[in-house]
Specification:
- The chain folds into two domains: 1-95, 434 Repressor (Amino-terminal Domain); 98-217, Umud Fragment, subunit A, CATH 2.10.109.10.
- The protein has helices at 9-23, 27-34, 40-45, 52-62, 66-70, 131-135, and strands spanning 98-104, 108-109, 114-115, 122-128, 138-143, 156-160, 170-175, 178-184, 188-190, 199-200, 207-217.
- β7 (170-175) and β8 (178-184) form a beta hairpin.
- The strands form two sheets. Strands 2, 3, 5, 6, 7, 8, 9, 10 and 11 form a nine-stranded mixed beta sheet that branches. The chain has a two-stranded antiparallel sheet with strand order 1-4.
- The chain is built from six helices and eleven strands.
- Helix content is 23%, strand content 26%.
- The chain has 220 residues and is α+β, with helices and mostly antiparallel strands.
């Protein structure tokens, strides 16, 4: 156990919160992913839960060093390459920086539509840090073939939350209570598969944009 007399517990908790915000997720998401209790940060701030194993878990998910969380350095970053003692025949282990994104289990339809509500079941997944994943707010799964050949049934897509997108861009739309992944057209939602006709929009339709589609991503 790390002695609470050697370190400022409030500073440790503050560094964790600040680094989590920098990575683009909340402390609640961090603790859930690390399988730590929801009161862990409060306990750390009060000097009651400063254990090396917990800090190591948190540092791994924040892609920073334990020394940074303890205040022994102001540089939060560590070399992406983690080299462990190996025998000559073993390879060097490479650690890829990660971030956490919510993955909503109800799919966006690339077909006739599916429901997507605020209480949709969600899980949090680790994804590699890239320009696309850093810009994304959540992940959805595609259902259907109307967006082929760009998106296929079962593909997972990165979504940047946005209330509007430009004509010609692909987004997630909630139309009359059902969700679609479509290209925004002039008064219509367009499928990329020519076998599907555009969905014409009418003034009485209840429609909103739930985000811009950035790219597909392969989940582990």
């Amino acid at each position: 156990m790390i002695s609470q007399n050697l370190y400022n517990s409030l500073d440790i908790a503050d560094r964790i919160k600040r680094q989590a915000k920098t990575q683009g997720f909340t402390t609640k998401e961090l603790l859930l992913a690390c399988k730590l209790g929801v009161n862990t940060i409060s306990k750390i701030a009060n000097g009651k839960d400063i254990y090396s194993k917990n800090l190591a878990k948190i540092a791994d998910y924040l892609s920073c060093s334990v020394d940074y969380l303890l205040g022994r350095t102001d540089n939060p970053y560590v070399d992406d390459r983690i080299i462990k003692p190996v025998r000559p025949e073993e390879d060097i282990e490479i650690s890829i920086p990660k971030r956490i994104l919510p993955f909503y289990r109800t799919a966006a339809s690339a077909g006739i539509g599916s429901y997507l509500f605020d209480d949709t079941p969600v899980e949090y997944v680790n994804v590699p840090k890239t320009d696309k994943t850093l810009a994304a707010d959540y992940i959805l799964e595609v259902r259907g073939d109307s967006m082929e050949p760009k998106f296929h049934d079962g593909d997972c897509v990165l979504i940047q939350q946005s209330e509007r997108i430009y004509e010609g861009q692909i987004g997630i739309f909630i139309l009359n209570g059902e969700s679609y992944i479509k290209k925004m057209g002039n008064g219509e939602l367009i499928s990329l598969n020519p076998a599907y006709s555009p969905i014409r929009l009418h003034e009485y339709d209840d429609i909103r944009c739930a985000g811009k589609v950035l790219a597909t991503i392969a989940l582990e």
